[in-house]
Amino acid sequence: GYLVQLRDSDRELPEQFAQALTTQIEDARVALSFSKLSTAQTAIETAQTIWSRWSRSRAAWLELEQKRGELVAALDAEPRVDVGSKLRSSLDEELHTCRRDMPLSDDPETIRERLQAIRNLLNLYREVTGRISALFFAIANLPDEEARKSWQATLTQHSDKLLQMTLSDQVAMEDLKRGV
User: Fold this and answer.
1) What is the DSSP letter of 143?
2) What is the pLDDT of residues 122-158, one digit of tens each?
3) Which one of 59, 73, 118, 156 is most buried, counting C-beta atoms within 10 A?
4) Cα–Cα distance for residue pair 180/176, rounded to 1 Å
């Protein structure tokens, strides 16, 4: 009862917290219908923990949900991370996982660190992409056609390599940055 009322009356409650609460409440109801009191108690305690995490750090969770949304939008801002790329899939997956994990995290700092890692990689991606684009522009007027084609092939390889990276490839992306 009271957890349902709290969930339903809180207009700021992010969807992932509401879903986690609903899941635990429903698990408790099902367990009670089968007279599994211990299972029901565990589900209620989990729901209480989720509510406590939310209410204790409400402002931080709201800020993190906003930052997560900004990162989702940033993936489509120029220079865009190509939708079909391994890098985009990795970033999309981590943003989704961060959202899902918010109600399960003991404190917002864990999610904040994960979102910052995504922001850092996205900024690095943009920097490397900018350098590659600038070099493409710079070599366009090279008088030696063979040198121009060689540079274009090298830069295309770097660009392709960049899109095949994942969130865990930050060191490789730093190396690529130094190479262009």
Assistant:
1) S
2) 999 999 999 999 999 999 988 999 999 999 999 999 9
3) 118
4) 6
Confidence of residue 167 (pLDDT cuts 50, 70, 90): confident
The tally of CA atoms less than 13 A away on the side-chain side of residue 63 is: 9
Q: Two tokens at 48?
A: 């209480």
| Amino acid (1-letter code) at residue 102 | M
Written as six digits, the tokens of 165 are 């990276």
C-alpha 69/C-alpha 64 separation (Å) is 8
- Model-wide pTM > 0.70: yes
Q: Which residue has the tokens 């969807």?
A: 15
Structure tokens at 76: 């489509």
Cα dihedral 116, 117, 121, 122 sign:
negative
Yes or no: say if 128 and 155 are a contact pair by the CB < 8 Å rule. no
